[in-house]
Amino acid sequence: MAEVILMPRLSDTMTEGVIAAWHKQVGDTVNKNDILAEIETDKATMELESYQQGTLLYLGAPVGGKLLVNDLLAILGKPGEDVSALIAENSKKSIVDSQKPSDNSQQTTENKAQTIPANKDEQATTTIDISKIEEVVLMPRLSDTMTEGVIASWQKNIGDTVKKGEILAEIETDKATMELESYKEGILLYQGAKAGEKILVNDLLCIIGKQGTDVNAIVAAVKTGHTTDNTQQTIINSPQIASQPSTTETVVNEGRIFASPLAKKIATEKGIDLKYVKGTGDNGRITKADVDAYKQQATIASQQTTDNKQQIISQLQPTISTVTESYDEVAVSQMRKVIAKRLAESKFTAPHFYLTMSIDMDEAVAARTRLNADGKTKISFNDLVLKATAIALKQHPKINSSWLGDKIRYNHHIHIGVAVAVDEGLLVPVVRFADTLSLTQIAAQVKDYAQKAKDKKLQPADWEGNTFTISNLGMFGIEEFTAIINPPDACILAVGGISQVPVVKNGVIVPGNVMKVTLSCDHRVVDGATGAAFLQTLKSLLEEPLRMML
User: Fold this and answer.
1) Which CATH number is 175's domain given?
2) Comparing 473 with 315, which gets the higher pLDDT?
3) Residue 19 — φ and ψ, nearest 5°?
4) 42-72 burial string, b = 16+ CB within 10 Å, else e?
């Protein structure tokens, strides 16, 4: 008897999965523990093993297709076995489920209603079933908060041959710019947007297939199955380049371009297309020096033209210069959009209150000096604050909690988010199980995350799962400030700089090192006395750092 395989829940927050790749096709024999498919969840791409054996009779979605948890994924059985009743039964269930409000209900229902064609090349006479179009690549959800992506660059142009594992494009999300690998191979026939344009999650990104495929029909079918007011897609019959290079330039890099992160960053800032830059690094890798050399050549080549333009402009300018109003308008980045949305929701949804405390850091300053005396370790004051916070959270679990509407979650694990400033905004990588880490381990992790954040190399797993957040502006000379709570946390700690001020000790005024911290609390979860008790514990740990070593 045929066995139904449903889309499993592969993470605690997963509600749907995207088929990244099928390792078995209809008609193949499947044994226990064989890899059936690769499933892209909200956290990672994971291999799905089969716990059954038989012949694969049905696939619930093509590569790139999306299925909700518990939707029909595949059917195993005997060769030639009739599975139409099982398909109809699960399709009916999916249609009922899809009547619930959902952005993707129409697309999900259509995917479940698909049938197995008798002939591989068989096509409907009046409509095209989107779920059977294996060449369609939709915009994936590359982070838990992503709703749309901006095409930072296309690594393949229309007409190029695409192989599995090659980089199709670089996608700017709200968190980072990430490389998108192709899970298909064929000819790139269509691009859903140009570099710099945005595409909503699950909208048509591109089409890969055989030369001569009717792209117009596929685009029309995808639009029918999933249309958004904010997405306008056009058929592109030839490669489109956002900024055309000089006709004298020669393409030196075909396919995937290998370049250092710094070289990519400089090229992006200067508007340089790396396919025209010759690399001198290992295996032709493009370095910063290569980009600088290319920029210098371009500057020399255009200098004469620039001088001529400046001469003409100077002749036309009036002899008396005037001051005029001017401004620049810059499109809001994906990261800034999400920061604005999430912090506005937090500020106007969670009733904030604030508790500020001054901490004597004399002993902490002395302890840090001794810890770093050998020159091998580099412990920062932020590392000391993070360690003390982790211990204090262990003693005050109500601070390490989340408001979930009809219930409060008290987390037993301690995952501390550390706010890191980048050019586009703010990222919050998470130090996991911080209470179990030593100071040197904390220092190494924070340093690594900070560098990854600046290089846009953070992955979704690096910024998810925080139970508490620390924002430190002390290194920028800020003495005191308040921070907005970072959902789903109930609290956030704002840390100011250490100031040398007069203090009274044993009845005598002496110079002292004082640091101010402010705890922002969600009053739905945390009361004033609870927050105050947490700060008292934090203060005692930082004023006697040896207690943190116990």
Assistant:
1) 2.40.50.100
2) 473
3) -75, 105
4) bbebbebebeeebbbbbbbbbbbbbbbeebb
| Burial of 372: CB neighbours in 10 Å, binned 0-12, 13-18, 19+ | middle
Q: Where are the beta strands (DSSP E) in 439-490?
A: 468-472
Q: Is the pLDDT of residue 245 over 50?
A: no
- Whether residue 426 contacts residue 420, with contact meaning beta carbons closer than 8 Å, is answered with yes
CB 193 within 8 A of CB 158: no
Q: What is the average per-residue pLDDT within 23-48?
A: 84
Angle at which helices 105-112 and 215-225 cross, to 10°:
120
Cα of 502 vs its chain's centroid, Å = 46
- The string of pLDDT tens digits covering residues 282-305 is 667 788 778 878 866 666 555 655
**CA dist., res. 449 & res. 209, Å (int):** 39
Q: How many CB atoms lie within 10 A of CB 115?
A: 14
User: Domain total for the chain?
Assistant: 4
pLDDT interval class at 136 (50, 70, 90): confident
Type of residue found at 39: I
With beta carbons less than 8 A apart as the criterion, state whether 367 and 548 touch: no
Cβ(249)–Cβ(263) below 8 Å: no
The answer for 433, left when phi > 0, alpha when psi is -120 to 50, beta otherwise, is: left
Task: Supply angle C-alpha 493, 499, 503, rounded to 5.
Answer: 110
Residue 359: predicted pLDDT: 96
Active-site residue list: 523, 527
The letter for the amino acid at 48 is L
Q: Tell the residue number behind the tokens 């050399």, with chain if given.
A: 293
Please enumerate in sequence order all residues whose Cβ is within 8 A of that of 154, keeping only pairs 6 or more positions apart, or say none: 168, 169, 191, 195
Q: Is 450 domain-assigned?
A: yes
Q: Which residue has the higher pLDDT, 475 or 275?
A: 475
List Cα–Cα distances, 282 to 200, 255, 268, 292, in angstroms.
37, 17, 22, 17
Average confidence (pLDDT) over 327-337: 78
Task: Print the domain residue range for 276.
Answer: 261-301
Pull the structure tokens for residue 154: 């296309």
The answer to whether residue 526 scores a pLDDT higher than 70 is: yes
Tell me which amino acid residue 207 is. I
- 124 with 141, same domain: the answer is no
What is the predicted pLDDT for the residue at 379?
A: 93
Does 126 share its domain with 268?
no
Instruction: For residues 314-329, give the mean pLDDT.
Output: 67
> How many residues are there in the chain?
550
Q: Domain for residue 321, yes or no?
A: no
Res. 102: pLDDT tops 50: no
Token digits for 205?
């990104």
Q: What is the pLDDT of residue 113?
A: 34
Residue 528 has what DSSP assignment?
Answer: H
CB 19 within 8 A of CB 64: yes
What percent of the chain stands above pLDDT 70? Answer: 79
Asked if 154 and 191 touch (Cβ cutoff 8 Å), the reply is yes
